[in-house]
Amino acid sequence: MSERIVILDFGSQYTQLIARRVREAGVFSEIHPCTRPADEIAAMQPDGLILSGGPLSVYDAEAPQLQPGLLELEKAGGEPVPVLGICYGLQAMAHLLGGGVEAADRREFGPADLTVMTENGLFAGVPEGSTVWMSHGDHLTTLPDGYEVIARTGNAPVAAVRSCRRPHYGVQFHPEVVHTDYGREVLENFALRICGCEGDWSPASFVEKQVKNIRRQVGAEEHILLGLSGGVDSSVAAALISRAVGERLHCIFVNNGVLRKGEFDKVQEAFRGHFDLHLKTVDASERFMAQLEGVADPEKKRVAVGNTFIEVFEEATEEVAQRVGKKPRYLAQGTLYPDVIESVSTGGPSQTIKTHHNVGGLPEEMGLDLIEPFRELFKDEVREIGRLLGVPERIVGRHPFPGPGLAIRIAGPVKREKLRLLREADDIFISALREHDLYDEVWQAFAVLLPVQTVGVMGDERTYENVCALRAVESVDGMTADWAKLPPDFLGRVAGRVVNEVPGINRAVYDITSKPPATIEWE
Ligand code: XMP
Fold first, then answer.
1. CB atoms within 10 A of CB 112
2. Where do the H-state alpha helices sit in 111-231?
3. What is the pLDDT of residues 52-64, one digit of tens each?
4. Does domain 416-510 fall into CATH 3.30.300.10?
5. pTM for the whole thing?
6. Between the CA of residue 127 and those of 180, 181, 489, what are the distances in Å?
7. Among candidates 459, 466, 522, which has minimal Cα distance to 499?
8. Interacting residues of 348 by C-beta distance below 8 A, sequence separation 6+
9. Catalytic option among 136, 139, 174, 357
10. According to the CATH classification, is domain 203-396 in 3.40.640.10?
11. What lines the ligand 1 site, CB under 6 Å?
12. Ligand 1, residues 335, 520, 522, 523: which to mutate, most atoms within 8 A of Cβ?
């Protein structure tokens, strides 16, 4: 089994960042809810445990507590599993061990200078006075028995502690955020020096391992179906799986009627000739539109698209069965780690807000076994793997695009005419981003058509037409996002082009809300 560090999520918005930093140190990391009992965590044979921060106080009635036994885990050789508590994670540790945790006079939020008081492996290479990022309301007032303070800041006499008996550490600051100058080093020190990991996890080693795993799982006979969307995740999944099973992978690309302008052709062009895989295209746009036309409720749009996909896929399964004489037994999906943990995190509200139906759905209805090689990866890791596998940059660097497509970018009832307007406006925005080298600067960008008419004037004529919203965000994984500060001149030019070139739209607005409190998509 490969090295791994388990991160227990106490609800912090930064938990995923911890996982990323540990992986950047070359050690595979995975996040689990803080409610998982110690014996289940022990069964994962972690090389170390990290307890995340969290929004609550350990004294709140519903505050998540550290599960008993987690501080006594042992590795196979009998040595203790190292633990690092971060902020709330430290407080939860201290609280369980009889230390004192109290509300500070005022919430400490922002940068502070760290003074390391005792030489120790956690802070190896961290210079005196380096900046750390604080964000906490409670702090430690008395230490648990056998613990000592190893660092302080001007405001916090207890900025970091360690146990004198076991490799247990706690920091009050957040090493995972970029505002902590040497945070990366602190987490790397924990993973390599304290947990004793070698740090040999990398996208290249991942590919090698997954190819073997897929071959083992699928055997020499079975066939795999994969829904190609033209997006990063399914495209890289196709490249990886085709490396493992060759022509036993059957890709299907469906025109669901709510694709962007020219997309059906562009994706086919990108794949044909580039990859040695079987690609079948199905133009089911009329079938999808029959289910979508007039539907206004966002969740009903998702259900309509999801259900029609299942029908189209079932037919594709039959087609493969006739062609190769065997029904595919597996369905491959490009599900990513954030999709998986949104449902387990104590902090991630997204799952109940929208049903992002690329997780689950299809296979249960279709009786196919799942292959999800990227279930443990973040999007930028998948992009790196795509590059390793030779997937063209224009696919690897694409923005995410939702399964229900433009249907959830027409606020209100889906109509063909509205789809036509939206396609044109979206194409102008995206092409302009590319022309001005801004496409790669944002995480996702798109246009939304609003169910609102406004008055305008063109020439001497009064117009009374639709409004289009432009949305561009910066994000790491889509779970939180900030609106992109695109240059005002650029936005002005795009708005001008949309209104001039798309008859039926006479106003464009730019969305300047972040997630939370908004979401990235409007529906
Ligand atoms: P939200 O709007 O929830 O979006 O902030 C976060 C990310 O998820 C994408 N998204 C979806 N993807 N099916 C998908 O496959 C969906 O139903 C769906 N809804 C949102 C969205 O584009 C963004 O990247």
1. 20
2. 183-188, 203-218
3. 999 889 988 889 9
4. yes
5. 0.80
6. 12, 10, 43
7. 466
8. 341, 342, 479
9. 174
10. no
11. 302, 350, 354, 356-358, 400, 402-404, 444, 478, 515, 519-521
12. 520
